[in-house]
Design a protein that fits this description.
340 residues, alpha/beta, TIM Barrel, 8-stranded parallel barrel, 5-stranded antiparallel beta sheet, 11 helices
């Protein structure tokens, strides 16, 4: 089935802080983030990165280092993808950045084609233009030689496949990273798993890793090109009503971004009034103290996901993001899960 990839998003400012043992466990680093400004791809924080990238390559010569462009609320995609001339300008500038910094490719994190939910520009023509944009990027990256990579981060539910043509788009991509996190929480005042493998018990919605994989397979993406995304951070609901273990309950808040795993381990997991629960149907842990509900991933849930990736013949696992796991605990669980 081939070696499973371990891919991590690493903030530009964290590149110099990466531990040697962590670098060795990664196949790909996605640098977060470059952006699109006036139809050009730019990496505004690139100053001073040369020595950091050189150190990483010296430790792990086979590692691939890719610049990820975009992120939540990052504008410019709809505009850059709109016409042949704007697509060419963006693609050529992306390739020039790759060449200048001796990178291995570009990752496109457009959140999301056809949707302006994060305050970005959007247009129904994004569906077609998304594929045309990727085609132009592939053309310019191929012109550089050395097998430069093109990947995307994709929303982990049907809204993404309905507003793109993934069967065509995947032809230009090395792989598709499913953002199978934040699946519940951001817009809903009901507690639930934000990254579970399966829907689970008393979970109001069916969004989960397994559904996302099925949806993208049905949309025409080969299994070996699918990468499962996992969170190294939590989502938190407060003022939870109804007691019990807190799962599937109405809350006074939506599920906001919560602590990284390092902080969870230090101050939350079976500490300070929080009890850890395990939903065996969903293969997901959660914490509850009678008022505050926390959804997250841990070693047990990640082992279920590495097993799933192997069983389904998928390409590997991606995580967001390195800085949330200062001890390398979750990264090690993924690495060991694929070696088992």
């Amino acid at each position: 089935m081939g070696k499973k990839k371990v891919i991590g998003y690493v903030g530009t400012r964290d590149l110099g802080k990466m531990r040697e043992e962590d670098i060795r466990k990664l196949d790909v680093i996605n640098i977060a983030f470059g952006h699109i400004r006036d139809n050009e791809v730019v990496w505004e924080e690139s100053a001073g990165t040369e020595a950091k990238l050189e150190r990483i390559r010296k430790i792990h010569p086979e590692i691939k280092i890719i610049l990820s462009v975009g992120g939540w609320s990052a504008d410019g995609f709809s505009q850059a993808a709109m016409t042949e001339s704007t697509r060419e300008k963006a693609a050529k500038s992306a390739a020039a950045l790759v060449a200048a910094h001796k990178l291995d490719g570009i990752d496109i994190d457009w959140e999301y084609p056809c949707f302006a939910v994060a305050g970005i520009a959007a247009d129904l023509r994004d569906k077609e233009n998304f594929t045309l944009f990727l085609a132009k990027l592939r053309q310019e990256l191929d012109a550089l030689g050395n097998g430069r990579m093109l990947t995307i981060a994709a929303g982990g539910d049907t809204y993404f496949t309905l507003h793109t043509d993934m069967a065509k788009a995947q032809e230009y991509l090395d792989y598709v990273q499913l953002m199978t996190y934040d699946l519940q929480g951001g817009f809903v005042k009901v507690t639930g798993h934000h990254a579970s493998l399966y829907p689970g018990t008393t979970n109001l919605f069916d969004v989960c890793v397994d559904k996302a994989v099925k949806v993208f397979r049905e949309a025409g993406v080969p299994a070996e090109k699918l990468i499962v995304g996992v969170p190294f951070y939590a989502r938190v609901w407060k003022e939870v009503k109804g007691g019990g273990d807190g799962l599937g309950r109405e809350a006074g808040t939506v599920g906001t971004g919560g602590p990284g795993y390092g902080e969870l381990a230090e101050s939350y997991i079976d500490k300070n009034g929080f009890r850890r629960y395990w939903d065996d149907a969903g293969k997901a842990p959660y914490l509850f103290d009678g008022n505050c509900f926390i959804s997250y991933d841990d070693g047990e849930s990640l082992r279920a996901k590495t097993d799933y990736v192997k069983e389904k013949g998928l390409g590997g696992i991606m995580f967001w993001e390195y800085g949330c796991d200062p001890e390398g605990t979750l990264l090690n669980h993924i690495y060991e899960g694929f070696r088992a």
